[in-house]
Design goal:
Number of domains of chain C: 1
CATH architecture of chain C: 3-Layer(aba) Sandwich
Chains: A alpha+beta, B alpha/beta, C alpha/beta
CATH class of the domain at 34-93 in chain A: Alpha Beta
Number of helices of chain A: 2
Largest sheet of chain A: 2 strands, antiparallel
Order of helices and strands of chain C: HEHEHEHHEHEHEHEEHH
CATH topology of chain C: Rossmann fold
Order of helices and strands of chain A: EEHEEHE
Oligomer: heterotrimer
Structural class of chain A: alpha+beta
CATH superfamily of chain C: Thiamin diphosphate (ThDP)-binding fold, Pyr/PP domains
Shape of chain C: globular
Number of strands of chain A: 5
Helix content of chain A: 10-25%
CATH architecture of the domain at 34-93 in chain A: 2-Layer Sandwich
Radius of gyration of chain C: 19 Å
Strand content of chain A: 15-25%
């Protein structure tokens, strides 16, 4: 038998290695709407960042912003914001959408 | 040439001697669930721990599936481990057996062969071991109490070898050996340490360490899966020579040789061969000697390793022989031949067609007796002379 | 910028470690399990080993060939082997003096059904690891089949609604109480709407696991399977607590106490109206569900009261 296959695993059995290969999905491409913050209404309570399932809210010092590379557009931040400072706006309305 | 000191001779049962064998190798995590005919082994190990003779984590699990999972995980974390079971217990841990070998965990397990699965029976038989033949483990079968102990020591040396890293199952006939007290030489623990010491000089195997970003049991996708399976099969191939090498080292050091993958007894000038395994081999030896007195040129091949199947050594051993009789203590459902016979028959393509007779005997604690073996030798002898023969015989059904 | 809280929310103080997961992973939008999975290592620290199993957890907890979706050490297991593997790992790590936490992370299908026996065994033996059940009340990863954690009346693909079928005909196993009966060193119920409560329980879990077995039961609704609008996942958790459908309590050494007590519990319809898995239930079905909720609450309340 002439083996042409180049080994995928350095190990004898199937081990993953995050240092060698940390996988990541383009989940930002999933969403159909994105959160838009009205900074006037925000008091930096942090609930949007705490409740965000993908934990993609970046701390901007006095407010939070969704990392659009990963935001899935679930809308939890908008629903949970006690001051209704976040609106979910359809992607079509954005030039980079 | 350094050799071990003489050990202490004790008269103890197969179960107890298995516990000694395990204890001498200093396992760090032990898990066991009681099942006839192995329970005494689990108890003896617990006693060793309770008395401070064995410094190990002893987990009294709630089922055999758990005992295999406990030891395979501990093994992947880096521990030396041990467990023991029989029949239904072996079958209950079926999923874990496969994970153990696919994860390449060097677990050593003692299996007291008992009839299973399906027909409820509390009697000796090899069906349990046979039903687990494709789980990717190394499977070795021993003949007597001394060999149980010796083989357990050799099993650790094999399993943990850096170029092997496979779990090893040491089988012994339940009831025949588990409860049989024989005089056994128990080696000194320092000598066992010395015999296993070469493992420390090898590179360290991959282990699961908290805080290190590696994961065990990742999904094998497409070629990743194929590659892992291929490496596993290649490791099983490497086991063959390694078993012979370790047997030689063991014999050189402790003074007891077993032949490695197979033992060939009076086969050199034999015309016909009887193949047997386990405790019945002792009886076959006696009958072979008696027949030799009568001028029958018969030899015995004791199959010690069942997985991986010792195809190369067996081919060599049966080359030029005129006929073979294989005594199977189990069944191969879907084939009329017994499992060892069936696998041996695949070697016929290498040696040319000769009569290979299948004998099913010794099920359900029914003895493989001297008259049975005499009959086997007579019939194989006749077949060797070109006389008609019966391909498959269930000896108990003909009585 | 409105004057008010300019200080960072104190819940962030519970985090001792950054997010160990990659930015984009394959959990559904709005999935509380994603929040749980990312939350746990942030509070417990990264010196932990995840033991995961098939279910919603596996596609992200386990790798794909060499690649992994997070930086934690993990061991994958079939469902029957999770707590026993955790036993082997935790016994050995403790023996060699490694300061590490072994954390099992499974769904309710594993914990209450096929993996229950070893879980019960490990709990009884007091094995030193944390077992976290994310309870989405069914086998959600395979498409919403019922488990023994599925509630009375719920529509699933194996308890469907039709001419004869009216959803699951039996109440769910009271898994938290079952685990309480094993007298673990520590156990608690938790959910994602009450994050500080959850964080405190995780911290206590990390402390108590040094003494014995720890069990955490996390109510984690499935937006896809339960037909919840993705933005309402946290609201569902909150209403589960406010209706006493999922009371929040903890128990050290088998002595239960509420961590959140609801003065005026809302009717269970406040919860069921947020999802479609109960939409086929008429008044009588909803009354039966309310009765089941009340009975369950009364039982845990009597245990907590007895313990005061």
């Amino acid at each position: 038998m002439v083996i042409k296959h180049k080994n995928i695993f350095k190990t004898e059995s199937a081990w993953s290695n995050a240092d060698e290969s940390l996988l990541c999905l383009d989940t930002g491409s999933w969403r159909t709407e994105r959160p838009v913050l009205d900074k006037e209404k925000c008091n930096y309570c942090g609930l949007c960042a705490l409740y965000c399932p993908p934990q993609c809210m970046k701390d901007m010092g006095d407010h939070y912003e969704a990392d659009l590379a990963y935001c899935k557009g679930c809308g939890i931040c908008a629903t949970e914001c006690p001051r209704k400072a976040i609106a979910m706006v359809p992607e079509g309305e954005f030039a980079d959408g | 040439m350094v050799s071990a000191q003489k050990g202490q001779v004790m008269v103890i049962t197969g179960n107890a001697v298995a516990a000694y064998g395990a204890m001498l190798c200093r396992p760090e995590v032990v898990a066991a669930y009681p099942i006839t005919p192995q329970s005494e082994l689990a108890e003896q190990l617990a006693q060793f721990v309770a008395n401070g003779v064995l410094d190990a984590e002893y987990v009294e699990v709630e089922g055999e599936n758990s005992s295999m999972n406990v030891v395979l995980a501990a093994s992947i974390a880096g521990a030396r481990t041990c467990t023991a079971t029989s029949s239904y217990g072996l079958v209950f841990m079926y999923d874990a057996l496969q994970e153990a070998s696919s994860f390449r965990a060097p677990v050593v397990m003692v299996n007291a062969n008992r009839e299973t699965p399906g027909i409820h029976a509390v009697s000796s038989g090899q069906q349990d071991m046979i039903s687990a033949r494709d789980v990717g483990w190394v499977q070795i079968i021993v003949e007597n109490d001394q060999e149980i102990l010796d083989q357990i020591i050799m099993a650790y040396r094999l399993a943990e070898d850096f170029n092997i890293q496979l779990p090893v199952m040491v089988n012994y006939d339940g009831f025949y050996l588990s409860y049989l007290a024989e005089a056994v030489e128990i080696p000194n623990i320092e000598d066992v340490d010395a015999f296993l010491a070469p493992l420390k000089k090898q590179p360290e195997r991959q282990k699961l360490v908290p805080g290190v970003s590696i994961g065990c049991g990742t999904h094998g996708m497409e070629m990743g899966y194929v590659e892992a399976r291929y490496k596993h099969c290649q490791a099983l191939e490497r086991v063959k020579d390694k078993v012979d090498e370790i047997d030689k080292d063991f014999g050189d050091y402790f003074g007891r040789y077993y032949g490695g993958q197979i033992e060939e007894y009076r086969t050199d000038d034999a015309d016909i061969i009887v193949v047997a395994s386990g405790s019945a081999t002792g009886t076959v030896r006696t009958v072979v000697d008696a027949k030799r007195e009568d001028g029958v040129k018969v030899g015995l091949i004791k199959l010690r390793m069942f997985r991986p199947f010792p195809a190369e050594r067996l081919t060599e051993a049966i080359k030029g022989k005129k006929a073979i009789g294989v005594i199977d203590r189990s069944l191969c459902f879907g084939w009329k031949y017994g499992p060892i016979c069936m696998e041996l028959k695949t070697l016929a393509v290498n040696i040319g067609s000769i009569p290979i007779l299948s004998y099913i005997d010794g099920l359900a604690n029914l003895d493989i007796t001297v008259p049975h073996i005499e009959r086997v030798i007579d019939e194989v002898s006749a077949a060797a002379q070109g006389k008609p023969y019966q391909e498959v015989t269930w000896i108990p059904m003909e009585e | 910028m409105v004057e008010g809280t300019k200080k960072r929310n104190k819940i962030f103080d519970y985090f001792c470690e950054e997010d160990q997961f990659a930015g984009g992973v394959a959990w559904c939008a709005g999935c509380p399990l994603e929040l749980t999975a990312r939350f746990v290592p942030k509070v417990l620290g990264k010196n932990m080993v995840f033991v995961g199993t098939p279910g919603c957890g596996a596609p992200v907890l386990h790798g794909q060939n060499v690649g992994a979706w997070h930086k934690l050490a993990y061991m994958a297991s079939v469902m029957t082997g999770v707590p026993s593997k955790a036993t082997g790992l935790s016994r050995y790590y403790n023996r060699i003096g490694l300061d590490a936490t072994v954390v099992c992370f499974t769904g309710d299908g594993c914990a209450t059904d096929v993996g229950f026996q070893p879980l019960s065994g490990a709990a009884e033996r007091g094995e030193k690891f944390i077992y976290i059940t994310y309870d989405n009340e069914g086998y959600m990863n395979t498409g919403n089949q019922r488990s023994s954690a599925t509630p009375l009346g719920a529509a699933t693909t194996t308890t469907p609604v039709g001419k004869i079928g009216r959803g699951k005909p039996t109440v769910s196993k009271n898994m938290p109480l079952i685990m309480l009966m094993h007298r673990p060193a520590y156990m608690a119920t938790a959910t994602l709407s009450h994050l500080e409560d959850f964080a405190k329980k995780l911290q206590k879990a990390k402390e108590k696991v040094k003494e014995g077995f720890v069990y955490l039961h996390v109510f984690s609704p499935c937006p896809v399977g339960w037909r919840i609008s993705s933005n309402l996942s946290i609201e569902v958790c909150r209403n589960a607590v406010r209706t006493n459908y999922f009371p929040l309590w903890e128990a050290e050494e088998g002595k239960p106490r509420f961590t959140v007590e609801i003065a005026n519990p809302k009717p269970v319809t406040e919860l069921t109206k947020l999802m479609r898995k109960f939409s086929h239930l008429k008044e009588d079905g909803l009354e039966e569900l309310q009765k089941a909720v009340d009975e369950r609450y009364a039982l845990i309340k009597s245990l907590c009261d007895a313990n005061k």
